[in-house]
Amino acid sequence: MCRAFTWLTILLTLALTSTASAGTSHDPKGVHLSFGASDTTMVVTWTTRKETETNVRYGPSDPGGATPADLSINAIGDARKFVDYGSTSSVRYVHVATLEGLTPGQIYEYQVGDAKLDRWSKVFWFNAKRTAEQYAEGPPLRIIALCDIGFKESDSVVELLTQEVHGEQPPDAFVQCGDFAYDLDDENGGVGDQFMKAMEPIAAYVPWMTSAGNHEASHNFTHYRERFTMPDRSKTDNHYYSIDVGPVHIVAYNTEALFWPASFGVEYIQRMYEWMEADLASVDRMRTPWVVVHGHRPIFCEAADGTSCAFNENAAFLQSGKDARDGVGHALRFPIEDLFYKYGVDLAFYGHEHEYWRTFPVYDEKVVNGTDVSLNRYFEPRGTVHVTTGAGGNINMDRGDDPPSRGTCDMIKDNSPWCAFQSGVDHGGDRSQEFAYGVVTFESGSKMTWEHFSALDDGKRIDLWSIETSSHGPFARRTYSDNLSDAALIATE
Ligand SMILES: *[C@@H]1O[C@H](CO)[C@@H](O)[C@H](O)[C@H]1NC(C)=O
Ligand SMILES: *[C@@H]1O[C@H](CO)[C@@H](O)[C@H](O)[C@H]1NC(C)=O
Ligand SMILES: *[C@@H]1O[C@H](CO)[C@@H](O)[C@H](O)[C@H]1NC(C)=O
Ligand SMILES: [Fe+2]
């Protein structure tokens, strides 16, 4: 009797164990947020390996956070079956649900899963997007800006980002401008799954807004299209869109369209270009004074051999619409930089180069400093400031024996007079690259600050600089103040 019972127990245990392991594929994986089309929505995306319902239960968080929230509000989303093109034709169900009618600035707790099966993720939280007035009252809008984050070699950066997200004042959004996982589709998508899981401590709490890089190019950016849910996804496959967050209008565009003619073509870029121009022209600068653009490949960059990509690499030509100067011929040239100047894009950032560097205000390869630009304070700039923040940690980054180079751009001044500050640029030797991330704070309609933190140096701040401007809009039409103690600036600081 006793023995029979023991065997029964063992059999039952075995049965339960195997159910559990087969059943884990019903479990939600890679939960992440993104801003929805309307200000009072938040979009949740996740995957399961087996078909399940798409349910979210959520509710406002108890102000002190002492008791768990009552997750009594339900959202039902949609799932799509995504069959990978790899050798095993692995199957994922990508679930997308939109949480609507959110109270601005309210903290919500939520979990995702399948109500019928009663299988749920852990409970996450997020801050509903604040109103412009709430951002103005403070704390100000803060955005993490970092591209080129791989699954491997990114631990130290991901840990610091996780601390930011779970710290005193979580950032309002996390923008990753391309190159995910290295690569999302590797090992039949297994690398992508692991990466999305590793990013969950960040992306399940803070909206993760993206643009695509060359590492997503396989099969016409299939994994990028399937795994993310950006605004206008149904129209642009996550490649270009814009959102307003507090005082900032953020535009994402597809730099890769210029480089993968087999996937895209002139007509595609023409469409995107026209969309971008109409989008930039329509921004109400009274409502969203700042305009920020991100994409994967920089317009201005710096190459290891001491020449700038505006001269010898195709990125700048393609995005400036100019002819290649040293034989880099390419059909797909579009004067994207001209749009930045014409409509007054304050800041543009990119990745691709696994380093950090920023320009002085620049347009058409000329530094357009304005009234009083110093290394760390760009006062009344007369052109866009470009930043490369592509050191998210990935298998292509070098960890040389020597510390990274860090500082002003003396060594490349002749070729890149627009370069203001850099870190982790490989100038030969055995230098390590600098694993680092940016935090951008929009203090007011007239001041924004970029801080850069190094993961090689335990999160030490390695750069701090601001743009201060008393007017926004087309650079050619801005009114510039010659007076450093301008009243408008002081009033809003
Ligand atoms: C690749 O995808 C884009 C949309 O993301 C589409 O416009 C284009 O036609 C596709 N290219 C090919 C070759 O299918
Ligand atoms: C722009 O300002 C920086 C910092 O003051 C200075 O080093 C640089 O020479 C200036 N460039 C031009 C073209 O005025
Ligand atoms: C600069 O602006 C301040 C505040 O508006 C004013 O008091 C001061 O006289 C101005 N200085 C010059 C040189 O115009
Ligand atoms: Fe890249």
Automatic annotation (TrEMBL):
Keywords (A to Z) from UniProt: Glycoprotein, Hydrolase, Signal
Domain Purple acid phosphatase N-terminal: residue ranges: 28-127
Domain of life of the organism encoding this protein: Eukaryota
Calcineurin-like phosphoesterase domain location: 142-356
Keyword field contains Glycoprotein: yes
Molecular-function annotations in GO: acid phosphatase activity; metal ion binding
Stored SUPFAM superfamilies: Metallo-dependent phosphatases, Purple acid phosphatase, N-terminal domain
Protein family per UniProt: Belongs to the metallophosphoesterase superfamily. Purple acid phosphatase family.
Protein name: Purple acid phosphatase
Species annotation: Micromonas commoda (strain RCC299 / NOUM17 / CCMP2709)
